[in-house]
Amino acid sequence: MWEQYAAALPANAWNWSAVWRRNYMAWRKAALASLLGNLAEPMSALFGLGFGLGLMIGQVDGISYIAFLAAGMIATSAMISATFETVYGAFARMHAQRTWDAILCTELTLGDVVLGELAWAATKAVLAGTGITIVAAALGYAAWPSIPYALPAIALTGVAFASLAMVVIALAPSYDYFVFYQTLFLTPMMYLCGAIFPVTQLPIALQRVAEALPLAHSIDLIRPAMLDRDASSVGLHVGVLCIYTIVAFVVSALLLRRRLMR
Amino acid sequence: MLGGVEAAPISRRTIAMKPAPVTPTDRGGEDVSNVAIDFTAVKKSYGQKVVVDQLSFTVASGECFGLLGPNGAGKSTIARMILGMSSPSAGKITVLGEKVPARARLARKRIGVVPQADNLDLEFTVRENLLVFGRYFGMTAKDVEKITPSLLEFARLESKADARVTELSGGMKRRLTLARALINDPEILILDEPTTGLDPHARHLIWERLRALLSRGKTILLTTHFMEEAERLCDRLCVLEAGRKIAEGPPHALIDEQIGCPVIEVYGGDPNELCALVKPLAQRTEISGETLFCYAPDPEQVLARLRGRTGLRVLQRPPNLEDVFLRLTGREMRD
Ligand SMILES: Nc1ncnc2c1ncn2[C@@H]1O[C@H](COP(=O)(O)OP(=O)(O)OP(=O)(O)O)[C@@H](O)[C@H]1O
Ligand SMILES: [Mg+2]
């Protein structure tokens, strides 16, 4: 009975790395274009909103608006990179390109493949998040010494959202469904979770909702790090993100097993 | 790595005329190490639809076992079940001594697969495809580099090592998929329609490569629509229809058993009229389109009766697997 589900779990602690390396090899061939594409959008949001709105808003939480926004854009871009890599990249490898089919004929299990894809999507999130962090720091909107603290938070954000997106691709019949995920879940989350304005601006009921959403916890980890402030409830934020990651990983692996190994 | 395999555990049939039936019982009864794949009463259904029904067969190690059947007969489903990529609804599957699907991962270490649809990595070159695939078996880049030349030579792709997969012809892609399947030096090869869509030249090249693998002692499970392919390569065949086994045995035994006499094909006249004419002289006749198939133990009599009629094209030939297949899965089955 238990053995039935073995295929949905990673076989060991290192098999996934073969999948990560395959994706890395493919990405390397177009790395520059991919990096530019990943950074362009959050950068334009940062500068557009930051300078434009910053003029009208002045200070937020005792800092300039653009410095406030930087952490929000870092978390959001990590979220978006991990999600897009999963719903477009991984979905193509599962569906149209049949790359997963080929891998599942080898020593790897479906769990190994899913883990490798999550690790890869998280890597892309780290690349995007780090890129903005460095630009923000170079312009003086973030504290250099805090970058090492922000990195693990960005990585955790990446895995959490990659896992959630994995559930989405396990259920989606085609690409068309990803738009719903983006417009109904990701975009509202960006507004609710304190990426663009402080959560305290929201009605209390929505603040409660935000507390349950993963992006809010990412931002609560990344922003203090960026601004070199003391973070509070680090354990809680990390814990919530870990729970999202693990639950979504297990659910997605089981759903994918049902979808692919009929 | 390709050359390092011991001689085949069983002597292979070299001349097609003399079938050497290879069943596990021929070689020492219960010796399980001789059994590569075993299906016992396997059933697979999707909802109400039964796709594989009470199927039992055994593939001995070193033999080439063919699965034959029309579209939708369940061949690919069987291949997927062997790999643990699909779970049987009932029955028992053992592959290389491992229970499948529970321990399929361990079995897959020792299996190479050529799937029905190519799934090479289009973003990569030939060489990179081998490297990436080797890593899925825990090989290092060094391990893969060491065997790449021999794999490329085997697949006759030496000159294409650094070409992207998108630049390869269909036959080359198929050969690369075969080379990729050999990267882990497998004991069993699962080949799902390895030559479908290839031109005759490309097909012959694959056949020759497969025979080389058999002579190195590899076990092959092959699905195909080509009777000639099955007849040439397979020691034993299993003919399937709608997931059920309808015949099993060495190709020549099946031909003897099911047909057993020369075949005369006649076309160019009214097949129904011709049929009435020769029926008394034939063991069995069949009309397929405009062609009359006449299965006659004494073909001379039939030829004599047709002589003098103008405009007829008459061909006398030995029976082949095509005749068996038509008889087993064709009109006759449903009569
Ligand atoms: N995931 C699935 N869900 C429902 N039915 C399926 C599924 N996979 C296969 N089938 C059905 O099972 C039957 C056998 O399919 P299979 O692919 O094994 O046939 P096949 O012998 O390989 O055919 P072909 O010669 O066309 O490759 C078909 O009727 C097919 O529609
Ligand atoms: Mg098939």
Tell me briefly what this model is:
The complex is a heterodimer of chains A (262) and B (335). Chain A is an all-alpha fold and 262 residues long.
Description:
- The complex is a heterodimer of chains A (262) and B (335).
- Chain A has a two-stranded antiparallel sheet.
- In chain A, 46% of the residues are buried.
- Chain A is built from 10 helices and 2 strands.
- Chain A has 262 residues and is mainly alpha-helical.
- In chain A, strand 1 and strand 2 (63-64) form a beta hairpin.
- The model of chain B is unreliable at 1-31 and 331-335 (pLDDT under 50).
- The radius of gyration of chain B is 22 Å and the shape is globular.
- In chain B, 33% of the residues lie in helices and 25% in strands.
- In chain B, the strands form 3 sheets. Chain B has a 6-stranded mixed sheet, with helices on both faces. Chain B has a 4-stranded antiparallel sheet with strand order 2-1-4-5.
- With 335 residues, chain B is of the alpha/beta class.
- In chain B, helix 3 packs across helix 4.
- In chain B, 41% of the residues are buried.
- Chain A binds chain B through residues 3-4, 6-7, 11, 15, 18-19, 21-22, 25-26, 29, 97-99, 101-109, 260-262, and chain B through 46, 83-87, 101-105, 108-109, 111, 113, 115, 117, 119-124, 128, 132-133, 135-138, 184.
- Bound molecules: adenosine-5'-triphosphate and magnesium ion.
